[in-house]
Structures are given as structure tokens and as C-alpha cells.
Amino acid sequence: MGDTRLGPVESRFADLIWANEPLASSQLVQLAQQELQWKKSTTYTVLKRLCSRGLFQNQSGTVSSLLSREEFYARQSEQFVEETFDGSLPAFLAAFTTRKKLSDEEVRQLQQLIEENRKG
Questions:
Q1: What's phi and psi for 53, nearest 5 deg?
Q2: Dist CA 66 CA 63 (whole Å)
Q3: What is the pTM of this model?
Q4: What residue ranges of the chain are covered by domains with CATH 1.10.10.10?
Q5: What is the DSSP letter of 107?
Q6: Burial classification of residue 105, based on how many CB atoms lie within 10 Å of its CB (0-12 exposed, 13-18 middle, 19 or more buried)
Q7: Distance separating alpha carbons of residues 120 and 114, to the nearest angstrom
Q8: At the top level of CATH, which class does the domain 8-69 belong to?
Q9: By Cβ atoms counted within 10 A, which residue in 17, 30, 51, 93 is the most buried?
């Protein structure tokens, strides 16, 4: 997958698709008009852009995702850690916790996640 970054408006549009998929492209046009005040041409332009980036497909007038919302944001997060912290999750967490202390519940959840991943 190419560039995983989405601007704020692209994110709202992508969320419309993820929340309603699969959906007819005509239904997507209506949703985008209601939620984003977009014209039909704008909807198709942005859809085409996101399809070319490997996020969605428009097959025979039906729009669906090639990546789930969760998978997309997991890849985006991974890319951020790779680019910003040389792929080091501990370096990311160290930077994150210098300004925001973790609650006991967050620590518990992280410990649980570590244990689940340790088991494979």
C-alpha cells in the first residue's frame, strides 16, 4: 500500500464507506452529499483517489474496502513508528509517556497485550 495518510476530509469520507459497506456508488454519493455537502463529481474524484491508493474498490457500482478500518489504522500507526522512531515501539512509548502518564488501567492493558503477544 502506498501513502497511508489521509487528510481530515478523506478520513471522514473513508469512515462513511467503512460504516456502510458494501454500498452502491449512488448511495455513497447521497451519503457524501448529506454528511460532507459534496457534489457527485467530488465524491467520485475522492473515491477514485482512495481506490488508486489501495483502500477501496468500486466494482460494478458497488463500493467496498480492500482494507478494514482497523487494518488501515494499524498500518498507519506502524508507518508512523517506523518513520519517526526508527521502528522502535519502546522509543515511541518512552516519548509518549514523557508528557502523558499512563493510568493503572492503561498499564494493565499494555501488560496484557504484551503477554498475549509473548505467547504468540
A1: -90, 0
A2: 10
A3: 0.76
A4: 8-69
A5: H
A6: exposed
A7: 10
A8: mainly alpha
A9: 17
